Structure formats: structure tokens, C-alpha cells
UniProtKB/TrEMBL annotation:
Keyword flag Phosphoprotein: no
Name of the gene encoding the protein in the UniProt record: ispE
Residues reported in the UniProt entry to bind ATP: P103, V104, A105, G106, G107, M108, A109, G110, G111, S112, A113
HAMAP family linked to this entry: IspE (MF_00061)
Annotated GHMP kinase C-terminal domain residues: 212-278
Name of this chain's protein: 4-diphosphocytidyl-2-C-methyl-D-erythritol kinase
Enzymatic class: transferase
Source organism per UniProt: Luteipulveratus mongoliensis
Length: 311
């Protein structure tokens, strides 16, 4: 006699953080967003999202950042679950548990990652027949960074960042991230960028050939010289400690440094794993950041780890 196949009671998804290898910010558009040309790079600093059938809708956040993440309807993971339920016409509450390692308001797209993981986990739990493009559309509505977190790897982002095209890269890059407990609001950083450039004629942004060549060749030195972020002056203007953190990493042997997205996380590119671990020790000893972590990229986008079928 064959055992009955039960639908899964819960699904676990893993989602990466991101750093922008290049972030060119164009003029503010009529809808308030800025035209972007960016190269996203997923790194293996991850959150885990568990979505389980429940009596009521709810969110629990685990880990050191728990106190700084809302657990009501404004949580991006909850908004993602509601979006899948509406699209697939499902009326079945879920409880979402976010085991959080990606810093909050750190410029590494932590909330966006949780949204991407939840889209995938709910899609799997409810066995909807939503297409990949349905999920990508829902992702773009939740936030500009969310579609990339579904894709992962390394990808060019255009539009307001929501249009994503994967790029081929070779090898693995080693990063050290200097985390700061005080976050920066993404909207504030874009507004500060506008203020600092008020007298400039800002061109429509385009990707650079040098970065694409570096990625195709897996050339870490070339990548080091191609890193750039138009939001860096704005993030450093809002948090005056960032320049000191960046300088410390370069003194301790980082090949290059950049503010991650809208900051305040500072990313350092290291030659290899050993150099990254040395840099971590030196930065920790300097006390220039609240925490220092090593991560590798490119990493996989949101993916399902397993179904929980036990009742
Ligand atoms: C800084 C980056 O992380 C770089 O990848 C993203 O551009 C931010 O993406 P995100 O956090 O998903 O941002 P959203 O939730 O879409 O927008 C938050 C706020 O950031 C500003 N914003 C965002 C994206 C964009 N292309 N232009 C903007 O001006 C807007 O003020 C917006 O209200
Ligand atoms: N699941 C979530 N995780 C983290 N923050 C969330 C979440 N849901 C809602 N938020 C809210 O969103 C704000 C921004 O959080 P997030 O960690 O996504 O910023 P970020 O990493 O700087 O984003 P980005 O890099 O995409 O600009 C937080 O301050 C928090 O109030």
C-alpha cells in the first residue's frame, strides 16, 4: 500500500544579500524613482525564511536584528505572502519565520531578500501555478531590488533597478563587509544624492565595459578598479564615520572598497579567502565597525531548501 502524499505544511527558502559592484544613478524620474544602471552581485550572507500553514497570518524574526524589523503587515515578507495569496486566489494563512543574518537598513537589500524568499516559499507551499514572470512582476511591485534577489548571481539592473539581466562571470570573489548597527534610510540617501548634485547636469546612466570585462575574466584586480557607487558621497555625507572605515580597510590590504548600495555597510574586496580573513581580524581589532563578516560572491538567488511535510 502506498503512503498518501500530503501537501507540504511548511517550506524553507534561503536568500542572499547583495552588493552593487557598480551603481550609476541617473536623474529622478516623474514617479520619484531614479533611473539606474547597476550591476548587482549576490553574496552568501543569507537569511532563511520558513513559511508554514497556520491559523492566523503572522511573522517572527530571529537573530540579532530581530528588534529592528516590523512583525506586522508592513514586513516585506508578509507583503510578499499576501501578494502571492492574492495572485493565486489562496485563502490560507501562513506564519513566516525569518532567521535574519543580513543587516537591517544596511544597503544589502535584507528586506528585499526576505520578500523574494517568501514569494518563492509561498508559491511552493500553495503549489500555485504562477509563472516565473508572475513572480517577477510581484517582486518588482514589492521593491526595486526584489527581482534581483530572485535571480541572484551577478546581473545588470536597469529601469529603477527592477529590470534584471544575468551576466556571465568567472570564479569566486571574496568580500569583507563592515556592518554598522545604525542603518540609513534608502530614500534619505537618494534625497541626499540629489541635494549634493543639485548643480550638476546628471546624464542617463549606462553600464561600464571595464566592469563587464573584469567579470567575464574573473580578474579581481580589474574588478577592484571598476567598483563605483554614485550613492557613496551621499551615504558618507549622512554618516561621517564611513570614510574612516573605508580608509582602515585599504590600510589593512583590501584591494578596493565601496559603500554597499545606500549604505552604511562598507564592502571590501580581498584578493582571496586568506586575505579576507586577515582583513576581518584587522578591522575587528580597529573597532571601526559594529561587526565584520566574510562572504563570497556570486551566490545563488532565492531557492527552496526543503519542504516540511510532518504534521
Ligand atoms: C540602493 C539600492 O539598494 C541599489 O540597488 C536600491 O536602489 C534600493 O532599492 P529598494 O530598497 O528595493 O528601494 P524601493 O523600496 O524600491 O524604494 C525605496 C525608496 O528609494 C528611493 N529609490 C529607490 C530606487 C530607485 N531607483 N530610485 C529611488 O529614488 C525612493 O525614494 C524610494 O521611495
Ligand atoms: N523583512 C524585513 N527585513 C528588514 N527590514 C524590513 C523588513 N520588512 C520591512 N522592513 C523595514 O524596511 C527597512 C529597510 O530595511 P532593509 O534591511 O531592506 O534595508 P536595506 O538593506 O538598506 O535595503 P536596500 O539595500 O534594498 O536599500 C527597515 O528599517 C525595516 O523597518
Amino acid at each position: 500500500m502506498s503512503a498518501a502524499i500530503l501537501p507540504p505544511r511548511g517550506v524553507v527558502a534561503r536568500v542572499p544579500a547583495k552588493v552593487n559592484l557598480e551603481l550609476r544613478v541617473g536623474p529622478r524620474r516623474a514617479d520619484g524613482f531614479h533611473a539606474l544602471s547597476t550591476v548587482y552581485h549576490a553574496v552568501d550572507l543569507t537569511d532563511e525564511i520558513t513559511v508554514e500553514s497556520a491559523e492566523e497570518w503572522g511573522v517572527t524574526v530571529l537573530g540579532p536584528y530581530a528588534g529592528r524589523v516590523p512583525t506586522d503587515e508592513s514586513n516585506l515578507a508578509m507583503r510578499a505572502a499576501r501578494a502571492v495569496a492574492a495572485l493565486a486566489d489562496v485563502d490560507e494563512p501562513v506564519h513566516i519565520t525569518i532567521d535574519k543574518s543580513i543587516p537591517v537598513a544596511g544597503g544589502m537589500a535584507g528586506g528585499s531578500a526576505d520578500a523574494a524568499g517568501t514569494l518563492l516559499a509561498c508559491d511552493s507551499l500553495w503549489q500555485t501555478d504562477l509563472s516565473r514572470s508572475d513572480l517577477e512582476e510581484a517582486a518588482a511591485e514589492l521593491g526595486s531590488d526584489v527581482p534581483f534577489l530572485l535571480t541572484g548571481g551577478t546581473a545588470i539592473g536597469s529601469g529603477r533597478g527592477e529590470q534584471v539581466v544575468p551576466v556571465l562571470t568567472q570564479g569566486t570573489f571574496h568580500w569583507v563587509f563592515a556592518l554598522h548597527h545604525s542603518g540609513l534610510s534608502t530614500a534619505d540617501v537618494y534625497a541626499e544624492c540629489d541635494r549634493l548634485r543639485a548643480d550638476e547636469d546628471v546624464p542617463v546612466p549606462e553600464p561600464s565595459g571595464e566592469l563587464m570585462t573584469a567579470l567575464r575574466a574573473g580578474d579581481v584586480d580589474q574588478l577592484a578598479s571598476a567598483l563605483m557607487n554614485d550613492l557613496e558621497p551621499a551615504a558618507c555625507s549622512l554618516d561621517s564615520t564611513l570614510r574612516k572605515t573605508m580608509a582602515a580597510g585599504l590600510t589593512h590590504g583590501a584591494l578596493a572598497t565601496t559603500v554597499s548600495g545606500s549604505g552604511p555597510t562598507v564592502a571590501f574586496l580581498a584578493r582571496d579567502k586568506a586575505a579576507a580573513l586577515d582583513l576581518m581580524v584587522s578591522l575587528s581589532a580597529d573597532g571601526v565597525a559594529d561587526d565584520v563578516v566574510h562572504a563570497r560572491g556570486p551566490a545563488a538567488g532565492a531557492h527552496i531548501l526543503n519542504d516540511i511535510t510532518v504534521r
